[in-house]
Amino acid sequence: MAGSSHGHTPAAWTGVTISFIGFCISGAFMVLANPLGFWAGLVVVALGGVVGMAMKAAGLGQKQQAVPAPVQARAEAQLQSS
Predict the structure, then answer these.
(1) Is the pTM of this model over 0.90?
(2) Within 10 Å of residue 22's Cβ, how many Cβ atoms?
(3) Whole-number Å distance between alpha carbons of 6 and 37
(4) Where are the domains of the chain?
(5) Average predicted confidence (pLDDT) for the chain
(6) Of residues 30 and 61, more confidently modeled
(7) Do 35 and 54 touch, CB atoms closer than 8 A?
(8) Cβ atoms 37, 29 nearer than 8 A
(9) pLDDT of 9-19, one tens digit each?
(10) Segment 52-62 mean pLDDT
(11) CB 29 within 8 A of CB 40
(12) Are 47 and 73 in contact (CB under 8 A)?
C-alpha cells in the first residue's frame, strides 16, 4: 500500500470528513439520550459514503493504474497452471 496513493483524493477526503462529522453528531446525541438526533447523525454518516462515491464517479477519485507486465504475466501463468 505504501507505493500507491490510496485514499489521497478529494473524493476520499470529502467522504471521510462528512462521515466523521456524522459520527460526532451521533455520539453527542447518544450521550444526550436523544434517539432522533442519533439516527440523524447516522444518516449523515451514510451521506458521506454517497457523496464520496458520487465524487469518485465524477472523476475526483483515484484513477485505475495499469498493471505492470511482469505482474500480469505471473497472474496469467498462475491461472493457467491451476
Answers:
(1) no
(2) 20
(3) 33
(4) 10-81
(5) 85
(6) 30
(7) no
(8) yes
(9) 899 999 999 99
(10) 88
(11) yes
(12) no
Residues in the chain: 82
With CA atoms as reference, report the closest residue to 16 among 29, 6, 4: 6
Amino acid identity of residue 32, one-letter, is: L
Q: Give me the residue label for grid cell 484513477.
A: 63
- What DSSP assignment string belongs to the chain? -TTS-TT-SHHHHHHHHHHHHHHHHHHHHHHTT-HHHHHHHHHHHHHHHHHHHHHIIIIISPPPPPPPHHHHHHHHHHHHH-
Count of CB atoms within 10 A of residue 48's CB?
A: 20
Please answer whether residues 42 and 22 qualify as being in contact, where contact means their C-beta atoms are separated by less than 8 angstroms: yes
